[in-house]
Amino acid sequence: MTEVAARIDDIAGSGKLIRIQVCYATPERQVLRELEVAAGTLLHDGIERSGLLDEIREIDLSCWRVGIYGKLKTLDAVLRDRDRIEIYRPLIADPKESRRKRADKKAR
User: Fold this and answer.
1) Contact 94, 102 (CB under 8 A)
2) Residue 54: other Cβ atoms inside 10 A
3) What are the beta bridge partners of residue 35?
4) Element (H, E) at 46
5) What pLDDT, on the 0 to 100 scale, is given for residue 84?
6) Burial (Cβ within 10 Å: 0-12, 13-18, ≥19) of residue 59
7) Rounded to whole angstroms, what are the CA distances from 94 to 27, 63, 65, 90, 98?
8) Burial class (CB in 10 A: 0-12, 13-18, 19+), 85
9) Does domain 3-107 have CATH number 3.40.50.2000?
10) Which of 8, 17, 55, 80 is the most buried (most CB within 10 A)?
11) What's the rounded Cα separation, in Å, for the pair 97 and 91?
């Protein structure tokens, strides 16, 4: 067992709880779940425990990105107290192309 894995096991076994938020949004709907999980919980497990994967079937963590407070993270990141997990939907339009179109429109 690695040193990090051993530390996570020690923390998780301590029984200490941390508060986290899991959020997901579409243009029509915003979901914010607050929950308590054991210290040492992984980001993926926090999302699962929120119930969002069962409620919103379109979420696909195998290819969608996730982050904590706007910073991209991997699903095996260890959560800390008061973290806000954000689930990011795939982009529909290329941001560079959208900017070009807006600039062309303004130039006219």
Assistant:
1) no
2) 9
3) 20
4) helix 43-50
5) 97
6) middle
7) 18, 17, 16, 11, 6
8) buried
9) no
10) 8
11) 12
Question: In this structure, which long-range contacts are made by residues 58-62, counting pairs with CB atoms below 8 Å and at least 24 apart in sequence?
Answer: 59/24, 59/87, 61/87
- What pLDDT is stored for residue 9 in this prediction? 57
Q: Which amino acid, residue 75? A: L
- pLDDT tens for each residue of 50-80: 999 999 999 999 999 999 999 999 999 999 9
> Coil, strand, or helix at residue 6?
helix
d(CA 76, CA 43): 6
Residues whose CB falls within 8 Å of the CB of residue 27, separated by 6 or more in sequence, listed in order = none
